[in-house]
């Protein structure tokens, strides 16, 4: 970090991003490497549009920053302007489309936490993204959720991305895991952020409560889809991380005991698969659910 700007290579950024991924899974998470990645990105502004390993690592770092912003309710540290020259905004492959939705979530969060939100404009961009997304973002099968713990979330099966035709493309796929399934998860997360950012137009106490219930049902709908995408596409491992982060931020919205048990089951499965201990999160969620029931 003390090296001159021209000596900070894409290998250094990728290395610190990997260290940040490990740090994120630590129980305390002091965010030291998050400070490192955001400082590198904000110092070497070209990484966000450099192509290759450097840009793939930059998008991973942005997603790591988004997670912290979601769970701590604080603004992003990353300067989003550094991504505007990326060719993901003009390409049509799955990685590019997923990255655009990551960027829209980042914009929504930045607007909310800096009190400079233009949620209507972002909502229009999100609607356009969803309406014009490639056919690869359409599920190959959808099964509505049922009453058992094993099928409480909607089953949404997606075609997983195939590694690229060359080594560089394969690295992009591997380090970002940004296929259609992740792009759809970020779409639903963005819809939640936009729902929560809506200003009340209620004219009475009844109307205020009514609007609040509508927003909560909207959050539940999109959260269940985030969790369903993770459970239905287990080979895309990064979907589990996205689901876990969403539960940290909005797990309180799961009112049904069946949904709560299914969420716990998903987290325990993630613990077994990744080694990331979920006990503290499960206890926190149980307390939130208990508090909601008491009220």
Give a structural overview.
- The chain is mostly helical and 295 residues long.
- It has a domain at 91-294.
- It has 11 helices and 2 strands; from the N terminus they run H-H-H-H-H-E-E-H-H-H-H-H-H.
- The protein has helices at residues 10-24, 32-43, 52-72, 94-113, 119-132, 167-176, 180-196, 205-232, 238-250, 257-274, 279-294; strands spanning 141-143, 155-157.
- Helix 8 (205-232) runs antiparallel to helix 9 (238-250) and helix 10 packs antiparallel against helix 11 (279-294).
- The chain is globular and about 55 Å long.
- Residues 163-171 have low confidence and may be disordered.
Break the fold down into its secondary structure elements and pairings.
Elements: H1 10-24, H2 32-43, H3 52-72, H4 94-113, H5 119-132, E1 141-143, E2 155-157, H6 167-176, H7 180-196, H8 205-232, H9 238-250, H10 257-274, H11 279-294
Antiparallel strand pairs: 1-2
Helix pairs in contact: 1-2, 1-3, 2-3, 3-4, 3-6, 3-9, 4-5, 4-7, 5-7, 7-8, 7-9, 8-9, 9-10, 10-11
Quick structural gist:
This protein has a domain at 91-294. It has helices at 10-24, 32-43, 52-72, 94-113, 119-132, 167-176, 180-196, 205-232, 238-250, 257-274, 279-294; strands spanning 141-143, 155-157.
């Amino acid at each position: 970090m003390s090296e001159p700007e021209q000596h900070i290579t894409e290998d250094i950024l990728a290395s610190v991003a990997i260290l940040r991924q490990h740090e994120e899974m630590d129980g305390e998470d002091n965010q030291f490497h998050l400070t490192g990645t955001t400082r590198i990105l904000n110092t070497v502004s070209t990484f966000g549009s450099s192509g290759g390993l450097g840009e793939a690592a930059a998008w991973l770092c942005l997603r790591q920053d988004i997670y912290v912003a979601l769970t701590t309710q604080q603004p992003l540290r990353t300067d989003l302007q550094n991504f505007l020259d990326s060719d993901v905004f003009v390409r049509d492959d799955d990685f590019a489309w997923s990255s655009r939705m990551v960027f829209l979530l980042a914009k929504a969060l930045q607007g909310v936490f800096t009190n400079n939100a233009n949620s209507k404009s972002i909502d229009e961009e999100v609607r356009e993204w969803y309406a014009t997304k490639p056919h690869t973002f359409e599920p190959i099968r959808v099964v509505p959720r049922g009453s058992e713990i094993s099928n409480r979330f909607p089953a949404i099966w997606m075609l997983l991305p195939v590694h690229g035709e060359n080594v560089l493309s394969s690295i992009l796929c591997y380090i970002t895991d940004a296929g259609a399934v992740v792009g759809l998860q970020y779409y639903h997360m963005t819809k939640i952020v936009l729902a929560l950012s809506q200003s009340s137009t209620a004219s009475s106490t009844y109307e205020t409560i009514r609007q609040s219930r509508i927003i909560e049902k909207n959050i539940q709908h999109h959260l269940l889809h985030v969790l369903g995408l993770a459970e239905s596409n287990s080979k895309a491992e990064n979907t589990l991380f996205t689901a876990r982060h969403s539960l940290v931020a909005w797990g309180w919205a799961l009112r049904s005991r069946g949904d709560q048990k299914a969420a716990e089951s998903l987290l325990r499965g993630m613990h077994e698969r990744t080694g990331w201990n979920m006990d503290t999160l499960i206890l926190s969620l149980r307390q939130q659910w208990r508090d909601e029931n008491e009220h």
